[in-house]
Input
Amino acid sequence: MLQGVDHSRDVGVLLSQLGYHSAALLAKQLSAMKLTPAHAGIIRAVAARPGQCQQALSSYLGVTASRLVGYVDDLERRGFVERRRHETDRRLHALHLTERGRELMGRISELFDQRERRLTAGLDPEQYDALRDLLATIAQEEGLKALAHPAFRTLGEPAKPFG
Output
């Protein structure tokens, strides 16, 4: 370390460390369910915006349509997502969660809640609210969108389906 230069408490460094740690915790939990973080993100996005066409979801998440299709194909094969004809444009496919997908979404939500409780266990309710609000302000100022994790922009082709 350079003398007098310590960036270990910089906001960017701390956010990066915590983001990586948080993502690793979630990935480990999801792997036990034979899911990747990308699968979970797509399930969450479909749950939040049912009936959205693949193209609109691709655009919102910032992932190329061809990459999204591979993940949706896998989720459809596994019975979590279904494609239906779009209500207003029969050429498009609207995405919906199946009953199994809604059950899976419930389990994913519980994983997110567990991770949230673990990461904020040392905070009192006022500190928790203040941290959440400050982080939301930073995310908004940086142009980040809810449910559209920046990692989607660099998402590779899906790994071979589990099992």
